[in-house]
From TrEMBL:
GO cellular component: cytoplasm
Domain NAD-dependent epimerase/dehydratase: 3-217
Protein name: Nucleoside-diphosphate-sugar epimerase
Organism: Motilibacter rhizosphaerae
MF term (GO), any: aldehyde dehydrogenase (NAD+) activity
SUPFAM superfamilies with a match to the protein in the record: NAD(P)-binding Rossmann-fold domains
Pfam annotation, one family: Epimerase
Amino acid sequence: MRVFVTGASGWIGSAVVPELLAAGHEVLGLARSDASAEAVARAGATPHRGSLDDLESLRSGAAASDGVVHLGFKHDFSDMAGAGRTERAAVETMAGELEGSGRPFLFAAGVAMLAPGRIATEEDPTPMVGPDAMRGGGEALALSYAERGLRPVALRFAPSVHGTRDHGFIATLVDVARRQGRSAWVGDGANRWAAVHRTDAARLVRLALEREDAGPVVHAVAEEAIPTREIAEAIGKAVGVPSGPVTLPEVTDHFGWIGAFFGMDLAASSRLTQERLGWTPTGPGLLDDLAAGAYTSA
């Protein structure tokens, strides 16, 4: 297949691209800068210049491909509403171009808010619908295209897609621990996060692309429910600082923007995904990665 990948030079995309190439696929990778284009080319893919704001570049990339893997997102936490509008327009543009073709449209989503207080499954519908919802309501919008001759697949990633050189949520928590001189959890730290290693996530994306029986939702989750207290304690040991709780009134002062996320219960299962796709995660666990220096070694 010739696959158009947005976010091709990003954290997850830069693992997905070589996974697809190794399986014999051709990759057209969206690149918004010279540096991104060079990274895409070094990986063996073909750069496609454009951005998430350049809808014509998204339309032409989708039109030139046998399927789309949409991993790009504007992670601007100072303007999440604007990021949501960009995401919604991107989904409408690419899915609209593929409409009626039966081609696959895989897109990044998450497990947040699916089932607070219990372990979310692939059968849980997204509670976020409409243009004002998180990520612009992109999951519900994209899945609605199944009725228009498209094969949409929601790639619900765990909040931690971890590994060496990760610059996501866990890296941010590590930076907070260094800056504050203490690694903290919120309240009693009993709320849980799911996690998956980056290489396992990339393999799952490939399988979901290739398998027409993948279903409309897959969960990129290896570890279902790691208590955030254990995550914070592992970060403290890795950084060499003490660990302890913060109360709700202290969350923003200690963590900044990420405190709201670290206080959420984001547990999720991938049992159905593993059964349907024959996917078995084999990468190291999150706490193992932290202990091995994935977030603290130079």
